[in-house]
Amino acid sequence: MATVSPIWENASATPVVDTLSGAVSESWYAVQTRARHERVVVQRFREKGLTTFLPLVTEVRRWSDRKKSVEVPLFGCYVFVKMMPTNEDRLKVLRTDSVFDLVGVSRYGTPMPDDQIDTSDIPELPPDAWKNAVRGRFYRPLKQAVSMRLDADVVAWLKKRGKGYQTRANSILRQRMLDETKRA
Questions:
Q1: CATH entry, 27-116, from 3.30.70.940, 2.30.40.10, 2.40.50.100, 3.40.50.2300
Q2: Distances 171 to 166, 167, 177 between C-alpha atoms, Å
Q3: How far apart (Å, rounded) are the C-alpha atoms in residues 57 and 34?
Q4: pLDDT digits (tens, 9 = 90+) for 33-64
Q5: What's the pLDDT tens digit per position in 18-36?
């Protein structure tokens, strides 16, 4: 028989206080998100400078034509964030798109003990770690619908290779943009 250990056992509604200095320290909080928006919320939190934790498990998903291993969140609709129990940090979290609420006391959340979150596999990064970062294959820019007037022969050239002419036009423009930003 499999046993499941609780996620946190003795969560209290009071923030963690350093007994020596009396200072309030950062604590882990669970955040409820929109369905299937966990990775997006984690990315948005990281852009805001917050420490996050999203436990993932690998599942084999089956379609009619194939099987594929997919990483999915262990707790659907929840991510964990480490923050100070201040109004500023709470609002930083709650004003993030796709976030519903902090788990626990209404709009305040309940801090979780540090020993309940295993972050041992998260490497420490120096402050300049992202200085030379480039967008990877998982980067999905927001698309914006625009109306453009193009020469008929340009449109014909883009369409002659079949469906996806707008995507081809976008990739040509993106490559040109990246080339120019590298030169600058």
A1: 3.30.70.940
A2: 9, 6, 10
A3: 19
A4: 999 999 999 999 999 999 999 888 888 888 88
A5: 555 556 688 999 999 999 9
